């Protein structure tokens, strides 16, 4: 889907984008399905997340920056624990 971007990024590069000032969210094991109400950019700090978009499953791990476009239908599976910094409507590319 257009606007769905996954990019490996060092913590140093992430800090240069201001990610160390973003809101932080974490969660234990869960499965969630739905659509993003607005564009969200996340930098994953800990754990793993499986994101299913269409028929493709993406493994998201620490030091990955992910952009979820508004209206993206997807499924999130958190097998153990995940922690991310996030910001809505952030333009980085």
TrEMBL record:
Pfam families: Cupin_3
Entry-linked InterPro entries: RmlC-like_jellyroll, RmlC_Cupin_sf, UGlyAH_Cupin_dom
(S)-ureidoglycine aminohydrolase cupin domain ranges (all copies): 17-86
Chain segments annotated as transmembrane: none
Chain segments annotated as coiled-coil in the UniProt record: none
PANTHER family assigned to the protein according to its UniProt record, in alphabetical order: OS04G0445200 PROTEIN
Protein name: (S)-ureidoglycine aminohydrolase cupin domain-containing protein
Organism: Neobacillus massiliamazoniensis
Source lineage: Bacteria, Bacillati, Bacillota, Bacilli, Bacillales
